[in-house]
Each structure stands twice: as structure tokens, then as C-alpha cells.
Specification:
18% helix; eight-stranded mixed beta sheet; 5 helices; Nucleoside Triphosphate Pyrophosphohydrolase
Length: 243
Amino acid sequence: MPPDEPPQSSRPGRAPIRDPHLIPVVRHDADLPAVALERLQPDALRARLARVDDWQAPIVGDGARADWFGDRPATAASVLVPLVQRPGELHVLLTRRTDHLHDHAGQISFPGGRAEPTDADAVATALREAEEEVGLSHGVVEVLGHLPTYTTVTRFVVTPVVGLVKPDYVLALDTFEVAEAFEVPLPYLMNPAHHQHHEFEFGGARRHFLSMPWRPGHGDPREYFIWGATAAMLRNLYHLLSE
């Protein structure tokens, strides 16, 4: 599912942001503590995600604003937040959308999409979409729980389903939509020193979004610019695990 973007006006519409790199960074969060490594282990995640019913996510998404989108129907959707078991730490499996797509070309996202009538629940949607998009088999995923919903500017009410993925998983990408799948160490994403706040003026108001740029290193010059809804849901996971 693609990152969320601000609308063109006070009504839903196409986003004005074409290159989020160009939006100024106004601050980092190096003053906030990283999530302790012991909280990023499978048993600790199982325990924390088992008790989220009363937890309020700090970022609910711009689409939740009734004054902007009250007359636009909401659509249920889910994404899978796949945590791959690697030696010593978990990694987050993400995708990069193909460059030829009309919407959100080249952007970073979790596998996911809209709910179908045949889906039993949000978990079923996330697992089905992950299998359709990247070929991730249900059999290698242990569902740990889910985060509160995040509502995009296009009024998708997204349930982020967190799953533990066996390290020997095999992918088969839908190459029309997905250019590649890659992993980012979870401790990196759960360290606010790597979270950037971007701010700009739009529609007479100050707007902002988060980004979490990641470079693989080891001579690899690429940068994966994680932003929008994907970054917001990761930030909510950070807050959940920090409390």
C-alpha cells in the first residue's frame, strides 16, 4: 500500500508532493530514546501487541479529519508489517513500487491493500495482499497482533497487522506493481534519531510528514526514502514499544 500524501486542497485530491526529498527537514528526534533492544525481541513483541486495545496511536492520519473528508466514504484496508527473524535482531520487510505506475511510483510501502468481501477480517486482508503482492506464504507468518488504524487522505482506514516471518521465506513479486522487496533492521527504524520531520505550507496551514531514509551501506549507494503513511505507522509502532 502506498504512502499517504497531503491533498491538493481542503477536499480530497491528488497530492502536490512529487519529490518529498525537496520538502525541508525542520527537525530530527535525536533527543528521544531508541526502543530498548530487549523490547524488540519476539517474546516482548508478542506480549506488547497482546494488549493494545486501550492504546491510542499518536498519529491517526489526515483522513481521520471529519472536517476534510466527512462526506467521502471510508474503505477498509490492511497492511502487513513483516518482521523477519535474523540473527540477533528483527528486520522489517518493505517494498518499492515500480517506477511506471501512475500513482506513488517508486515509493516505499508495506505489502497490503483494500479489504475484499471474502476476507474474514483485517488479518486475512493483510495476509492475502502480502501473498498477492510479494508471494509471502501464510505459512511463514506468525501474526503477533495489530496497531490501531491509520486513515489515509484517500480515506483508506488501514489496519497495520504485525507478523513474525521465518527467515527462510521465499518471495514471488508481482512485478507490475513491485520493483523490489528489501529489509531494514528494526532497531534502526525504532531509533528516533533516524526520524526526520518535514514541514511545508499548504492551503494556508502548516503541514508536515515524517521520513526515515535508509541506506544499506557496504558500498551500496542506494537510499530508500521511507515516508508518508509507511513512516507514520512505523512511528506509531515506535511509540507503542516505547511505553
